TrEMBL record:
This is Fumarylacetoacetate hydrolase family protein. Keywords: Hydrolase, Metal-binding, Plasmid. It comes from Sinorhizobium chiapasense. It holds the Pfam family FAA_hydrolase. Residues 27-226 form the Fumarylacetoacetase-like C-terminal domain. It comes from the Bacteria. GO terms for molecular function: hydrolase activity.
Length: 227
């Protein structure tokens, strides 16, 4: 038996201090997971149940460039902590969730905000705003065995040297173990799944030529040029 055409290559992320690669399976994203960001988007920051949307594994890019996409005139940056799972499961208890984490990375959830706003008004899904080509620049993965688990620490983003987003991981409404546990009640998680855990306040538009510098304590920095 043969394939009708050549299968797509496996999307994988480098892992710091090793030659191994982390093969991606699914990309889950937590929506409105910082109270100040929920407020700036016009929503109540109360602790309602979390919600999720997805990007595609091949949306993740490592080349340091973000091509400004088509059909939009309002693309926003969203800096996020990325959680990478080394074990899967269903209905994972909160107190065991961190044992499923392989490591962490820095990611940008680039968003066609005008298309997202249109979708919200019409009650439609967000994929055209979120899951477009090269919409998730990401850093190499740092293993949890090296740095432990990230529960607090600065997360920020500068655009052309100007600080735009500035928060702390401890400001997440749904902490990493809670997000993993809740998500595992909705989906069967597996090794290679990653979770983009939401963004702090300060999201805003980018333009061609902008230099984005993102930081998460313990993970270093991610630099991306809008082209």
């Amino acid at each position: 038996m043969s394939y009708a055409f050549r299968p797509a290559a496996v999307t994988a992320l480098p892992i710091t201090n090793t030659l191994d690669l982390f093969p991606l399976r699914r990309v889950y994203c937590v929506g409105r997971n910082y109270a100040d960001h929920a407020k700036e988007m016009g929503h109540d920051p109360d602790r309602e149940p979390p919600f999720f949307f997805q990007k595609n594994p091949d949306n993740l890019v490592l080349d340091g460039e973000f091509p400004y996409p088509s059909r939009t005139s309002d693309v926003h940056h969203e800096i996020e902590l990325v959680v990478c799972l080394g074990k899967g499961g269903e209905n994972i208890p909160v107190d065991r969730a961190l044992s499923h984490v392989y490591g962490y990375a820095i990611g940008l959830d680039m968003t066609r905000r005008d298309l997202q706003s249109e979708a919200k008004k019409m009650g439609r899904p967000w994929e055209v705003a979120k899951a477009f080509e090269k919409s998730a620049p990401v850093s190499p993965i740092v293993r949890a065995s090296e740095i432990g688990h990230l529960e607090a620490g600065a997360i920020w983003l500068k655009v052309n040297g100007e600080l735009r987003q500035n928060g702390d991981l401890n400001q997440m409404i749904w902490k990493v173990p809670e997000a993993i546990s809740y998500l595992s009640g909705l989906f069967q998680l597996a090794p290679g799944d990653i979770i983009m855990t939401g963004t702090p306040a300060g999201v805003g538009p980018v333009n061609r030529g902008d230099r984005l510098e993102g930081h998460v304590d313990g993970l270093g920095e991610l630099t991306v040029i809008v082209v």
